[in-house]
Amino acid sequence: MSTLQLSGETTEIIETRDEHAGEGDTLIDVTHSSLNYKDALAMRGEKTVALIDPLVPGIDAVGTTEDDRLVTVNGAGLGERRHGGYTPQLRIDAEHLVDVPERFNAFQAAAIGTAGFTAALCVLEIRDDLQTDAGPVLVTGASGGVGSVAVHLLKSLGYEVHALTGRREEQGDFLRGLGADEIVDRADFTEPGKPMQKGTYAGVVDTVGSTILANAIARLQFGGIATACGMAQGTDLNTSVLPFILRNVRLFGANSVDATHETRVRAWGLLDEALDTDVLASLTETISLADAPQAGRDLLAGRRHGRAVVDVRG
């Protein structure tokens, strides 16, 4: 059996060792993982993600338990502070597991992965706060893993969805196929703007942070909500209290790593309710363990969209 291991800045396929499974009260025979932004950073040797050395990447793991349950683990420290899902067996405490809904198979659960789970966390907050006729919801970084699933979930639930991307010509058809009603040019959000701008959006799912998030908050309508789950543009947020006070807006942070079991189950319930598996298939490809490092480099360079499932079996 083979495992993908990162050591320093070198990522290579090695023979699986017992230590790669880690510690926990439940053993999973892993069949699939996925490629996420954090995985790409880890394989680049980014020390803010790869907290141990050596490290098996993979912040997702999907497989079967000893009692033949199909389960998924998203986050929970995998691929960061402990070995992750790019290995054929994993031990982890049961509190981090979620039973995969019956209508999803292992491949589909991995295609959803942390990206889909994070999108669901954000969309849950949108749905809890906003009626579907409240106004358009903006999704930033819409062609990425989190953004693409968020676009589709929001549209499935009945919202008007505006998808922000820096590649309108290249990704427009892809995003409209997911359900986007309007494609928004990222260039309109990249320069610092006034803290209060025209109230255009009822909600925001933001995957990039920094100036784009600040401008999105400034364009929220009264009572709007912004959900933040990424930092691809940066970790800074230069805004003011004005939108929060004068427009009664709210900023919600989605933490997919440390979410409670109850929250995990609720998010997967939303995915079970609203995710079209044909749409999921249309935005997903399969890669091998050996392909993962190059796919990670392409992801960081902005040359990928949608989701990539890593087949751990070969």
TrEMBL record:
MF-aspect GO terms: acryloyl-CoA reductase (NADPH) activity
InterPro entries (alphabetical): Acrylyl-CoA_reductase_AcuI, ADH-like_C, ER, GroES-like_sf, NAD(P)-bd_dom_sf, Zn-ADH-like_protein
Region (Disordered): 1-20
Polar residues bias locations: 1-10
Enoyl reductase (ER) domain mapped to chain residues: 8-310
NCBIfam families the UniProt entry points to: oxido_YhdH
Protein name: Oxidoreductase
Organism for this UniProt entry: Corynebacterium yudongzhengii
